[in-house]
């Protein structure tokens, strides 16, 4: 029988996770959260032991800075076709932290001013609520407003 050809070399592990198809075995690669790391100069604080430091070389430590995710207001928009009962029922079904009296307050504020604030949430949750309310029967119109901006 003819001799078998030598086996192909396997790619290094770092290439497996960065391949377009994801991780080995068909599983998608897991995205790692990004953080900003900065170096800052510091000296030992009170109660900390003195450390030998070479002259001319400041002691440094790594400081991680994180930023809170932006938050968005979910605003209920007024529509002449709304009836209070179905709208408030659907609001309480979709929005986890909204009870019946709060939903009625939002509805009445919406009737009076043209819009009422349902709540303030991270972007993904706010988008989910807007999408679910839009798919309701009757359709419930809402909009997202970045927190800190006027209603």
Keywords:
Ribosomal_bL12_C/ClpS-like, 3-stranded antiparallel β-sheet, flat, Adaptor protein ClpS core domain-containing protein, 151 residues, ClpS_core, alpha+beta
- Work out the radius of gyration: 28 Å
The poorly predicted ranges are 14-33
Q: Please trace the helix and strand order, writing H or E for each element.
A: HEEEHHEHE
SS strand fraction:
15-25%
Distance between the termini: 81 Å
Task: Give the CA-based shape.
Answer: flat
Approximate helicity band: 25-40%
Spatial arrangement of strands, main beta sheet: 4-3-5
Give me the secondary-structure category: alpha+beta
- State the total count of DSSP E strands: 5
Name the average pLDDT: 76
**Largest sheet descriptor:** 3 strands, antiparallel
* Count of helical stretches: 4
Oligomer: single chain
Can you describe this structure?
This protein has 151 residues and is α+β, with helices and mostly antiparallel strands. It has four helices and five strands, in the order αβββααβαβ. The longest helix has 14 residues, at 100-113. The radius of gyration is 28 Å and the shape is flat. The model is unreliable at 14-33 (pLDDT under 50).
